[in-house]
Every structure is written in structure tokens, then in C-alpha cells.
Amino acid sequence: ERGVVWEESIVMAPKNSRFVFLSATVPNAKEFADWVAKVHRQPCHIVYTDYRPTPLQHYIFPSGGDGLYLVVDEKGKFREDSFQKALNALVPASEGDRKRESGKWQKGLVVGRAGEESDIFKMVKMIIQRQYDPVILFSFSKRECEFLAMQMAKMDLNEDDEKVNIETIFWSAMDMLSDDDKKLPQVSNMLPLLKRGIGVHHSGLLPILKEVIEILFQEGLIKCLFATETFSIGLNMPAKTVVFTNVRKFDGDKFRWISSGEYIQMSGRAGRRGIDERGICILMVDEKLEPPTAKMMLKGSADCLNSAFHLSYNMLLNQMRCEDGDPENLLRNSFYQFQADRAIPDLEKQAKDLEEERDSIVIEEEDSLENYYTLLQQYKSLKKDVRNILFSPRHCLPFLQPGRLVCIQCTRSDENSPTFSIEDQVTWGVIINFERVKGLSEDDANRKPEDANYTVDVLTRCAVRKDEVAKKTIKIVPLKEPGEPIVVSVPISQIDSLSSVRLVISKDLLPLEARENTLKKVSEVLSRFAKEGMPLLDPEEDMKVQSSSYRKAVRRIEALENLFEKHEVAKSPLIGQKLKVLHMKKELTAKIKSIKRTMRSSTALAFKDELKARKRVLRRLGYVTSDDVVELKGKVACEISSADELTLTELMFNGVLKDIKVEEMVSLLSCFVWQEKLQDVQKPRDELELLFAQLQDTARRIAKVQLECKVQIDVENFVSSFRPDIMEAVYAWAKGSKFYEIMEITQVFEGSLIRAIRRLEEVLQQLIQAAKSIGETELEAKFEDAVSKIKRDIVFAASLYL
């Protein structure tokens, strides 16, 4: 959001303006300077240096190990031998050592076994002993920050006089709070921690508490600070040492390695200019890290400055309202358009190279092979549909009993490359157990969404390999191949079929002999049914699958199998290789099409189609006339930039905001500013739920109009972006409840709630201006009353920096 505002400000600034841009990490500064020079027709000089006054040393601390390993020295040299030694010292957490927390795996790194010191404790102890403090320990979750700080309970890093200073500074700051607010758990629990020289800093803290911690850290009274990523952005608070408690982060979709840009930003806090000879960065690693991944992270470049420009109705209406406003001119001069124009020569070269590569691939009987390839894709898609129906928990759970023989897909050596055989490579095993899985772990990046509910423990033959850092890889192989009998956890999507045969299995499968004997029994059953085939559960008779789509898919599979038998290329001995080459050719064609599509959209004015579509929406909803003159509704939307302008304007004009009490209105408006996703949230009271339903109906209507006008939007995603999670808390706050009382009825962090209420006040101020602009004095007074009800006490406590 902020990036867009900056971009608009630079484009629309008066031509006689002079700019100074400052940044520590912009690798494409020249590109940015070229854009500014082009837009304002004035030179933009770049002063650039790679010199760092305080050089950094990068170490690895392997989980379960005792020492640090220098992997990148102050000259920037990557030490391969030291890196391998660090990984060899790594003690991977076994399944039993892992702790589950909030539905996701908690790595063995942070928690020590009973009676043992955790890795974090050992790390901080070593840093203090070597006088590497002050230290910032970065974690990627607010709860983990607090959890790790609590592990330091036995550690005291401060002298008595420092404790006195901390207490004095702390209570001087807290004096502006009421007596009730001083008793908040976050306030009372933090002081004992701070007195021991340990602090926590994340966005869920009370703003005043966050500022006190920043002041104490600057004064050198906090020796060890647990912080989230936000501490590395916009705050000039360096330390001698920076520790990464994890090298993977959850980005809202999946767990991934931290990027080089993120690493540079956070590691940049290490080393205080004029105080330290060098800064120290320590990566705590609890799983195998490939050398290329480590090099990319430790020695990669900072993230490029890329345009995040996008159209908004507020911007569009404000441009249309101005006499000399021109949305197209704004788009033409945007950094987004500038970058798109610059990329075209490279894209043309890429497309040409790919076309040459594609045209060099010559395949015999290509037309016939292409027909076979298309049939194969259809066949695989239908098989997947059938498997999804059969192995939905509703149908298969009653049959996942211990002892049942199950046919599962083998682990392929290359999971990402497609197979070109009609039959998947499968093997047999015996079911030991199945369990419900609450959430996907970071280790299960390849697990499909339908597997999020259940996994099946199957005893089967596996090939076990150990790499150079003693990390095991286990692959399911056919029973006749060499391997070990191992119980593996298999996602439901990997099951191919269920047998009607069940074996009596030993209760104790820990001894190798017991597992071998069980697999021998499986092999005996298979050889007994070698001629007629293993008896399987009948989907309709046994599993009671009544779906018409299942029957339809089975009929189409049978028809395709007949076509395969008669197909002219089916008996070709090299069909697998030929299909692989054809697939490669098709992938190249798809890449070429994608590049050409990007080129077409780049050569045209960026967002031109979206601009037309959004103008259609504004005309259709009555915000502007057919001549693009801004109407009454449009004037209101012009004033709203901190919430969804169309939905809010519609609620204002259809009388919803006028007909309800002030407290209910404030509660409803909280849905516009709350963005965090909470689980298992209690529903708000009936009258508030009714208001929320009205908001959802309005949002759905607006989203459908946008869809009809060709604006790309996911209707349900848009509707679900309005969240009722803090409606009750905000209602109670507007009613005059104390802050500690509203914290008892919600499960959010104090700082997150305060930030939402402050943003809500910002929206109300914009609504006051909107009501004033159209002469709605009654609504204006109502919005002002709402501001007076929420703008009080700890939520709007003045900053310590002012």
C-alpha cells in the first residue's frame, strides 16, 4: 500500500521539486534514478558504495552441537570445509523429540529435552561468556519470540544498579497509564524479564511497551532481545551479534528458506559503527542446508526495488475529480510502466532462444504421438478424479483397519517430472494405523490439500540412503527390490487401491524380524493370487460409492483403455522417451506463449484494460456519470483511503450506518481494518452478526458487479477479507469497557488490537470528511461521537518519542 502512495507522490509532485532518496539496500538504484529523471526531466545522481564500515562474520550453529563454525569471513569468502563440518555436527531432531504447537511442527531446535538446556539457552550463554552481547535473536513468529524469551528464565544478565535503572525508566514510562492498565499481564510479566536484561519486541506488544524496550536496548540495559523481522526495518538499533533462530519462515502459503534480501536486512543490524571491530551473524540450523542454498542466502544480493503499483477506486476518483487529472498519464509515468518497457528487449531475446530450441526438436510421427499424449493426459486426470472419490475420508476410513493389505504408489526418483506410462509404479504393504493430522508441517511442502486430514501408517519395503551429512532419505520401493521393512506415513492421495484381504499382524513391530515376517506374509498372499489378481474392495458393493460422477469417470477410463490398446504408437519400443521429448517441446511452447503474453501486456499501457473495467464499475454503481463527472457517491469514496471505499460508501448510502447505534457502527467498521486470521473465534452476538451479514451481502454485490464489468476478482476471497474477529472487543471498548476487560473476551495480541482501533479512528476521520463533503451533518456528528468513544486511555497513549 505504501509503495503505491510513494509512486503516486513522485509522479504527481510539482516539476520544480527536488528529491533526495536514501536506502541501504537497493541493487537497482540506477533503474530507479533513470525513472525519476525521465518523469521529472531532471538529472538524478547516484552516490553508491558497497563498503561496510563494520565487516560481518557469518557463523553456523548446528542443532544439538556445541560450537560455532565460521562459514563466511569478513572478506566475504565462503568457507566450504567449515560449512560441511557444521552440517556433520548437526543432530537432526527425531520424530519423538518434535513438539507440536498450534497445529504446526515445533522444531527440535528451540526446545531442550527434559532437564537439558535448550539450544537457544546454550547459544545465549556462549554469547554472554564471549562478550558478544548485545544480541538480537530473530524469530519469525510473535508467539515463538515470547516462548524463547521464557526459556531464559534462569539467566540473569544485569547488575543490581542496571536493574534499578530499568525499573525507574519502566515505571516513568508507565506512569501515563491508568492503574488498571498497569495491571495488564503484558505489562506486569515484562518487567521481571527486562530486569534480567532480556527483552521481547514484536508487533503484538503494547506500543508504549515496545518503545520502552527500544529505549532500554539503546541504553545498553537489554543484553538479549528476541524480535521479529519488523525490528530490522525502519529502526536504527544495531547490536554486536544477530542470531537467526530459524532459517525457514512461513510466508502465509508454505515454509521456505529466507531470501538473501531478508537475510541482508536482518543481518545488517549486526556490528555497531565505531564500537565493534566486526559484527557477528549466527544461523541456527536444525536441518540439512545445501551449499548453493546457503551461498544464495549468505552472499546473495538485496531484493530489487520493484513497483507494487495497482489501481484503486479512490485514486481513480480523485484523478477524475481534478480538473487536470488524467489517470492514463499517471499510469504512463508509473515505475511499473517504466520497468515493463525496459523488460521488452530481454523478453524478445528469451522468446527467440526458446523458439530456436523448440524448432530444433524433431519427432517422428508427431501428430499420432500428440494424439496419444492428449489421451494419456485425459486418462491420468480421470484416474485422479476416481481416486479422489474413492479415497475421500467418508468412503475409505471404515476400511483403513490394521492388517488390511493396501496398494500404494512407489516413491519416484524425480517427483517433479511427469510419468508417461498408463500404469503407475505401485507396491503392496499392510496398514498399521491411520491418524488425523491437524495441520501441514513445514516438512510436508509436497503434501496435497486433500491430505491435510489423514495419513496412513503402512508397513512396506523401503530403500534407505544416507547422504554425506547422515540425513536419511526413505523411498518406497517394490517388495522384490532390496530394502528394509519400514512403517511409513503415507498421505491418502498415495493409496492406489485397498484389498479385501486382512492379515493378523504382530502387536510389536519394533524388532526387524517381526517386520520381515509380516512382509513375507504379504508376499505369500500376492503369490497365491498371482494369476487371478489380488481381490480388491468393490467401490460400489463394499465402499458404498453411489456417485454418478464416479460411474461416468470409470466408463470413460474403460473407453480410453480400449483406445490405448488399438493405438498405432502404443507398441513402439521407445514410446516413453518419445513422449518425454514431446512433453519437453510442449513445455517450451507454453513458456513462449507466456513470454509473448507478457510482451503484449507490456507494450500496451499497463493496466489499460483494468482502467476501463474499473471505470465501468464506477458508472454502473453511480459514482460517476457517463461523461466521467464525479457524482455524490464518488465524492464520498474520494475521501476514503484506509478501508474498502466502495463497500463503505454503499453502507453509508443504503442507510445501514445511519440506522444503528454508535457502538454497533464502530463494531461493524472494525471488520474493515482487521486483517489477521484467527482460528476458532467465537461468533459475535446476534445483532452484530446480523450487521456483519449485511456487510457481507453488500461486499458480495459489489464484487459481482466488478466481475461482470471484467475486473479480475475472486468474489468469495473479497467477501472473506472482511473479518468479524474483533467485533465484540471493539463493541465493548466503544461501550466504555476497560482495556483489560476487552482483552479477556478476545484472543488477539494487545498491540494488534490497539493498531486496529487506531486504524479504525483513521477511517472514522475520513468518514467525517466524507459526510462533511456531501452536507450529511447527522452522520458527521455520529462519526465524531464514535471517535470520542474510542479515542481514550492506553489505546491512544502518547508516544514516548514525542
Automatic annotation (TrEMBL):
UniProt GO MF annotations: ATP binding; hydrolase activity; RNA binding; RNA helicase activity
Entry coiled-coil feature ranges: 337-367
Pfam families for this protein: DSHCT, Helicase_C, MTR4-like_stalk, MTR4_beta-barrel
Domain of life: Eukaryota
Keywords on record: ATP-binding, Coiled coil, Helicase, Hydrolase, Nucleotide-binding
A GO BP annotation: maturation of 5.8S rRNA
EC number: 3.6.4.13
PANTHER family registered for this protein in UniProt: ATP-DEPENDENT RNA AND DNA HELICASE (PTHR12131), DEXH-BOX ATP-DEPENDENT RNA HELICASE DEXH9 (PTHR12131:SF25)
Protein name (record): Putative superkiller viralicidic activity 2-like 2 isoform X1
Source organism of the structure: Davidia involucrata
